[in-house]
Amino acid sequence: MNKTLRFMAVPTLALAALAASGSPALAHDGSDHYQSTLNQLNGSAGSGTITVDVTGNQAHVVLNVSGMPTTFMDAPYPHVQHIHGGAQGVCPDPSADKDGDQVISTTEGAPSYGGIVTTLSTSGDTSPAAGLDLKVGGQGAAYTVDRTFELNAETKAALAAGTAVVVVHGLDPATLSAAGQAAKSDLAPTLPLAATSPALCGTLTAGQMQMPAGGADTGIATETGTGALAIGSGLALVALAGGAYVVRRRTAGAAA
Asked: How far is residue 212's CA from residue 201's CA, in Å, rounded to a whole number?
């Protein structure tokens, strides 16, 4: 094999190997990916992000929350959080406060984000029935929920329709108006309004899984001592193989 043929063979073989390997750049991994950055509601100082990866009926959820109230009745503040669905798929704006206490309660926000379809509990039950179970809520100012569980049909439908909204509950009572501080929860009248009112909210949107580091690199590296080429992109391989073919054709023509 002469030098021109060897030059052509390397990128062509590399392209075949890339196709056979199932490169993330060329193949879908069979999962649907959703994410959201959670925005503040009701004067909350918190922040949060969430990713939801769905494969079949299994969901892997990673929720990170920080900047939330730390204590409630001399104990770590329990923050319940849910995926809501079946409504407009948006977070409420200030006009949702219908009773004028300057707090958007959970029920006042419901026309925007809908009812609970999944409880993002730290353990155990993830159905709407666990929605007010403080024992499985996030605890304190900052926490992570990272778990895999079976996703119900209502939540899958909301994700597919773009109406799934994540809501994290639990406000600092001191930040509320006088009327808000005096009010009882619209969901659990034995609790103050602050305990169950939304603090963070974000719509889950479909997105792509993060590519591995270096996956988008289009450079060419020479492997020491072998002369083999490492190509970081399928497109670069195609272009290189095509260029080698042209060189070969031109060389053959000159020889003729």
From this structure: 29
Confidence class of residue 74 from pLDDT cuts 50, 70 and 90? confident
Report which of 80, 209, 52 is spatially closest to residue 143, judged by C-alpha positions: 80
Domains of the chain in start order, with CATH, are 3-27+215-255 (no CATH), 32-207 (2.60.40.200)
Q: How far is residue 180's CA from residue 162's CA, in Å, rounded to a whole number?
A: 32
Is pLDDT above 60 for 199?
Answer: yes
CB burial readout 185-198, b (16+ within 10 A) else e: bbbeeebbbbbbbb
Stretch 106-117: mean pLDDT, rounded?
97
For 222, residues 6+ apart whose C-beta sits below 8 A from its C-beta are 228, 229, 230
pTM of structure: 0.72
- Using CA atoms, how far apart are residues 80 and 206, in angstroms rounded to an integer? 24
| Between residues 182 and 13, the one the model is more confident about | 182
Give CB contacts under 8 A, 24+ apart, made by 213-220: 215/24, 215/25, 216/25
Tokens standing for residue 78: 């329990």
3-21 vs 234-255: helix crossing angle, rounded to 10 = 160
Q: Which residues make beta-bridge pairs with 119?
A: 82
